[in-house]
Amino acid sequence: MREYAIAAIPADGIGPEVISAGLQVLEALERRCGDFRLKVEEFPWGSAHYRKTGVMMPADGLERLKPFDAIYFGAVGAPDVPDHVTLWGLRLPICQGFDQYANVRPTKILPGITPPLRDCGPGDLDWVIVRENSEGEYAGHGGRAHRGLPEEVATETAIFTRVGVTRIMRYAFRLAQARPRKLLTVVTKSNAQRHGMVMWDEIAEQVSQEFPDVTWDKMLVDAMTMRMVLKPGSLDTIVATNLHADILSDLAAALAGSLGVAPTGNIDPERRFPSMFEPIHGSAFDITGKGIANPVATFWTGAQMLEHLGEPAAAARLMHAVAQVTGAGILTPDLGGRATTREVTEAVCEAIRAGNA
Ligand code: IPM
Ligand code: MG
pLDDT digits over 115-169, tens only? Predict the structure, then answer.
C-alpha cells in the first residue's frame, strides 16, 4: 500500500468547509482505489490562531511541515485582520520558504457549467496558466519613508532573476510539451517595462531552443486579456509573471464559469520540499458558514495533489466523478445552482463509490 503524509491547513473563512469536503472525497477515493492511503494531519493555523497568539503559524511552522509529502490548504483572510498580515503570515512564507516556484492553474469548462462567453463550450477553453511564484512583483521588496507626511514615499520593487525566470520558463515549456497541442504563450510587458520584462523575453527565446517541438508566441499582458476573451481556443499553456498571472487567472476562472471551480498547485518541481494545493477562491467571508461554498476547486486541486504524488489514475477518477456531478446539474449558487457544499460533496463521493467514475 502506497502511503502519503498530507498536512491539511484549512485556515480561514470557507477554508475549513471546503477542506473538510475535500478530505471526505479523498477518503472515498482511497477506499475505491484501495492501493494508496493518505495519512492526514490537520494544523489549526490562520487568523483565529493569530488572534490568540499574535502569529498566523508558530515559528517552527515550516520545520513541522517539511516531512509531509504535500500540503492541502484552504484559504487565508479575515475581515478583522489586515490582508497583508494573513498573507505574509502563512501562505507566502510556505510558498517562498519551500521554494514552490511554479504555480500551476488549470482552467477548463466543466460539463454542466454555462460559461459567460457566447459560443464557448467545453473543449473550447482548456488552458494551464503557469505563474511564477517566487519573485517578480511579490518579492516583498520596497519600503516607505516619511510615513503619513505629505512627502511620504513608497516603493514596491519587482525582482526578476536569471535563475528564477529560467526555471519557470523551462517548467512551462516542459508542461506545454507534455500536453497534446504543444503550444505555449509567454506573457510579457516588455514595451513598458524595459528591464525585467526584456530579460524575461530574452530568456524565453533562449529556453525555447531546448524545446524545438513546442510552438510558442509572445503576448503583451493587456492584449492577452483580449485574446483570452475573443479567441480562447488559440491558447493552451500560458506562462506569466507572479502578478500578471494572478490577474489573468481570475479572468480565466470567470471565463470558465466561476472562481469556485479554480484550483492551484504551488509546486516545488525539484521535490526538495512539500508542494501545496489549494483552491484559488480565498476565504470568501461573505458566504462563510452558510454551507454553500463551492467545493469543486478543492476537489480539483486534490486531483492535482494526487497527480503530483504519483497517483494519476486516482486523480483521473476524481475528475471524472466531479464532471459527472457538475454534468448532472448538481451545482452550488456561484454556478447558478441550488446545491449545498454537502450535497455536491456527497454526490461526488457517490459517483466515486458507484465505480463508473
Ligand atoms: C491568488 C490570490 C492571492 C495572490 C491573494 C490571496 C494574495 O489572489 O492566489 O491568486 O494574489 O496570490
Ligand atoms: Mg489571485
Answer: 999 888 778 899 999 999 999 999 989 999 999 999 999 999 999 999 999 999 9
> Which ligand gives the minimal distance to the CA of 250?
2
**Do 14 and 279 meet the contact criterion of CB atoms below 8 Å apart?**
no
pLDDT tens digits, one per residue of 157-216: 999 999 999 999 999 999 999 999 999 999 999 999 999 999 999 999 999 999 999 999
Closest ligand 1 atom number to CA of residue 246: 10
Determine the atom of ligand 1 nearest the C-alpha atom of 264: 9
Which of 295, 271, 241, 235 lies closest to 106 in space, CA to CA? 235
For residue range 310-320, list pLDDT tens digits in order: 999 999 999 99
Query: What pTM value is reported for the model?
Result: 0.94
Question: For the domain 1-100+267-357, what is the CATH superfamily, name and number?
Answer: Isopropylmalate Dehydrogenase (3.40.718.10)
| Pocket residue to mutate for ligand 1, from 12, 14, 56, 87, most atoms within 8 A of Cβ | 87
- Which of 274, 263, 260 shows the shortest CA–CA distance to 326? 260
Rg of the chain over all Cα atoms, to the nearest angstrom: 20
Ligand 2 centre to CA of 242 (Å) is 10
Is domain 126-255 classified as CATH 3.20.20.70?
A: no
- Ligand 1 shell residues, CB under 6 Å: 87, 246, 280, 282
Task: Answer whether 1-100+267-357 and 126-255 agree in fold.
Answer: yes
Ligand nearest to the CA of 86: 1
Determine the number of helices (DSSP H) and then strands (DSSP E) in the chain.
Answer: 12, 12
